[in-house]
Amino acid sequence: MRVVEDLIEKAGGCAVVDGGLSTQLEKHGAQFNDSLWSAACLIQDPDLIKLVHMEYLEAGADILITSSYQASLPGFQSRGLSIEEGELLLKKSVELAVQARDKFWDAKKRISGHSYNRALVAASIGSYGAYLADGSEYSGCYGPSVGVEKLKDFHRRRLQVLVEAGPDLLAFETIPNKLEAQACVELLEEENIQIPSWICFSSVDGENAPSGENFKECLDIINTSDKVSVVGINCAPPHFVQGLVQKFKELTKKIIVVYPNSGEVWDGRAKRWLPSKCFDDEKFVSFAMRWRDAGAKLIGGCCRTTPSTIRALSKALKENAGP
Questions:
Q1: Running DSSP on this structure, what letter comes out for residue 214?
Q2: Does pTM surpass 0.90?
Q3: What's the rounded Cα separation, in Å, for the pair 299 and 260?
Q4: What is the dihedral angle through the alpha carbons of 34, 284, 52, 32, rounded to the nearest 10 degrees?
Q5: Interacting residues of 132 by C-beta distance below 8 A, sequence separation 6+
Q6: Cα dihedral 72, 73, 77, 82 sign
Q7: What average pLDDT does this structure show over 121-127?
Q8: Which of 25, 112, 203, 308 could form a disulfide with 30 if both were Cys (CB 3.0 to 4.6 A apart)?
Q9: Tell me: the pLDDT tens digits for 64-76?
Q10: In the predicted structure, residue 274 carries a pLDDT above the cut 60
């Protein structure tokens, strides 16, 4: 289970996660106006997903996150697909990333003196709130009828299908509350998952999980699991990240990953980006150096970040790599 540690070492102490998938797909003309978000591209234009994966690899990403964040079996069924068709699409999300990684690495490893690492593929597992597509992944309010068992049941088959497809690790993303973190930890144990996992929370105040629960409560649960190698923050504003990395360093010995948004704010109900002061690549990278210095070992971007963000980040981390 040391694949993540080995990658970080090869990368000089801090490895690069890719950037926003939907953002880049939209730049290529994809349109997302349904609840499947970028997962709709698995149905409509899978080659475009592979192209974007290749763009992030060229930019220097050490970890590719698959296009399965919003891809849940109930979500696919609500679009009229059978369970079997949904499972094939989940597998395809991993296969597209693996194919891109293998094609890219086969070409690069023949060239002496290149500065790339063989990338890892992280299978994305979005929170229950991401499936609901009602903004609850940013509030943590799932209601009284949703308990640990319901959340495990929701995630279980998708987890099994994604693992069968052969990723290097699993990435639980935008987890908004302690309840879902507990469900993820219990599920990894029950299914005896043998590849490493990370669990990432979002944060809307820079202090706590979106539910208002403090991160100590959330991380105390994760710290009991040897199935979870990495914890962190994704899909949060970049100006929150340094303080959260410092907080996580005090609360856990696990590897810390951060991949925040560009600084724009997503309105989960209106399904649009609200105008706000966005970080350009230079500012994002200058902040990322602080996250690295605070203890983050895996750094990338989430919504509204692009291959140019990741290229600048990769360059800066290589220039400032540890001994």
A1: B
A2: yes
A3: 9
A4: 10
A5: none
A6: positive
A7: 97
A8: 25
A9: 999 999 899 998 9
A10: yes
